[in-house]
Amino acid sequence: MKQTRTDIMGMPITVEVVGEHVPAEHFDAVFAYFEAVDARFSTYKNGSEITRINRGEISKPKQSPEMREVFALAEKTKEEANGYFDIRNPDGLLDPSGIVKGWAIHKAANLLEKRGVKNFYIDAGGDIEARGMNDENLPWKIGIRNPFKPAEIVKNVQLSNAGIATSGTYIRGFHIYDPRSPDTVLDEIVSISVIGPNIYEADRFATAAFAMGRQGILFIESLDGLEGYSIDAYGQATYTSNFNNYVI
């Protein structure tokens, strides 16, 4: 069974669970969780915790455990990515959206698993965590889109108990910047897809790798447990040494 919501976090969120008679409360719990994440972390909501932190209304000791967890993961990513990831914008405000989505998908997947669900995937805005097998008892099939023709799939990969995240400019425009050189236009590559052991590992490093331009795929190559597929501004694809292990 599959359900999709389009009114959470400004993107479509799809949950598919293998089985014909899946309790509705499983889907309800996942969507309610994403609504709670949006209410806490959205920089577009006047009353969200992150907005209130940026206004100076919530001091560090009073931040929620979830906010502190995301901030700690962001700082860890910044260090591991040699400064190519930073949730503090050039204007000085904090925006954790580059890490929250993958983190939230992974948490939602854990929520489903705690409910006894073994075979499912969660897709939020094209970033996916896949657990178990699909309804044909095979790994989940996931397409990587052509950034120049988004309706076209350039690669199909199969995943089980793994995540895939794509960072790029072809849908949302130039929304990623290089924290080390904020005025630099990131136009060397148009997309990079990263496969990892879970979606939040894939997501945080996909964002950092995109900020690195053509060097990003080499960065992914250097990380244990991650594989990547990058497409540059000329349509040339470059991928890591073991990426083809996932290709169908």
Q: Which key features would you list for this structure?
A:
single chain; 248 residues; alpha+beta; T-fold; eight-stranded antiparallel beta sheet; two-stranded antiparallel sheet; 6 helices; globular
Q: How would you sum up the major sheet?
A: 8 strands, antiparallel
What's the gyration radius in Å? Answer: 18 Å
Helix content: 25-40%
How many individual helices? Answer: 6
**How much beta, percentage-wise?**
25-35%
CATH class categorisation = Alpha Beta
CATH superfamily: ApbE-like domains
Give the rounded overall mean pLDDT.
93
Q: State the separation between the terminal residues, measured CA to CA.
A: 24 Å
Give the SSE order as H and E letters.
EEHHHHEEEEEEHHEE
How would you describe the shape?
Answer: globular
The CATH architecture comes to Roll
How would you classify the helix and strand content by structural class? alpha+beta
Spans where pLDDT lies below 50 across 5 or more residues? none
Topology, element by element:
Blueprint: E1 2-8, E2 11-17, H1 24-41, H2 49-54, H3 65-80, H4 97-114, E3 120-124, E4 127-131, E5 140-146, E6 149-159, E7 162-168, E8 189-196, H5 199-211, H6 216-221, E9 227-232, E10 237-239
Antiparallel strand pairs: 1-2, 2-3, 3-4, 4-7, 5-6, 7-8, 8-9, 9-10
Helix pairs in contact: 1-4, 4-5
